[in-house]
Amino acid sequence: MRDAIIEAGGEVHFECKMTGFKLRDGRIEHLETPNGHVQADAYILATGHSARDVFELLHQHRIQIEAKPFALGVRVEHPQALINEIQYHCAFQPDELPPASYSLVQQIQQKGMFSFCMCPGGIIAPAATAPGEIVVNGWSPSKRNNPFANSGIVVEVNQHDAYAVLKETGISADDPLLLLSFQQMVEKAAYTAGGGKAVAPAQRLVDFCEQRTSASLPSNSYLPGLHSFPLQEVLPEYIYRVLSKGFPQFGKKMKGYYTNEAIVVATESRTSSPVKIPRHSETLTHPQIQNLYPCGEGAGYAGGIVSAAMDGERVASTLALLLQK
Length: 325
Ligand SMILES: Cc1cc2nc3c(=O)[nH]c(=O)nc-3n(C[C@H](O)[C@H](O)[C@H](O)COP(=O)(O)OP(=O)(O)OC[C@H]3O[C@@H](n4cnc5c(N)ncnc54)[C@H](O)[C@@H]3O)c2cc1C
Hints:
Blueprint: H1 2-7, E1 20-24, E2 27-33, E3 36-38, E4 43-45, H2 52-60, E5 66-67, E6 70-79, H3 80-88, E7 105-108, E8 111-119, E9 123-126, E10 136-139, E11 148-157, H4 159-166, H5 178-194, E12 200-204, H6 205-209, E13 226-228, H7 237-253, E14 263-268, E15 275-276, E16 292-294, H8 296-299, H9 305-324
Parallel strand pairs: 4-16, 12-13
Antiparallel strand pairs: 1-2, 2-3, 5-15, 6-11, 6-14, 7-8, 8-11, 9-10, 12-14
Helix pairs in contact: 4-5
The structure holds flavin-adenine dinucleotide.
């Protein structure tokens, strides 16, 4: 990809962070970076869903952004052998079948709870982007040959939910960073509960639902280490309530799923962006800034590798046509 950019006359700047920009007459005049100014006819903003400094920068410049509903919860991990047994109902033959996956969804008290990014034979990984926060995510190696199966299990969060939790902080109900603040609050609570570094707080699954602190934790894939902690003290009350009622329901759909052999780790909070950057449906430009093109997952137009790549392609080709005119 880099070669294609360079052959077409482009440049690639590594280690070059956009730290600010200059606005003039409803347009971006240039970007500020530690290496100097960068000037262009148009600017594609595709900084991902964790570039909080970029959302804050836009907000400081009074550039319109919106709070966007997302989902937050935990990662649950079972032995892969148990998931194989539940899903295949027969002895698992690794030469004949891939490690089993699952997809679960449940409605609890008008709230959706669902599995997200299930990773067969996978690993729970630390994914925080700032000190003092814990975020966990998951991935599978190509052979899917780790002895564990993990999945995000998350609950939907909208403006109303976030405001109910945060209103005592003085934040306004229509603050575009409301959901981001909610996300950050839980990530900080998980860090404090873990006790520092990238250690994450965790509980066995049945203990989690029955509000018992786990006396021990099973072996697991999370390399920085886990600390047994009552997660109802980490998660917002309604998220905990939905999860603790939903897991036994999952156990009815997949017999054997609801077990203390499984572990629950907090917190899975980066399911999608908590902010949306608006854009015109055809020209794809920001409504206030004529030469700014919000793009990808961070702007709220994608939810994964392929959809982010497709949105990038769409923005680039739309922009190329406009610049030719
Ligand atoms: C552990 C893990 C596992 C995942 N597994 C999957 C999976 O299996 N399948 C799937 O579909 N998705 C998966 N995802 C999600 C996927 O990675 C994202 O959906 C996707 O990368 C979003 O693409 P994007 O281009 O919008 O943003 P990103 O890939 O986040 O790219 C944003 C880029 O902008 C840069 N940037 C940010 N701020 C600035 C700045 N100020 N100046 C300059 N550059 C900046 C960042 O460094 C980054 O390179 C996973 C994510 C993680 C963390």
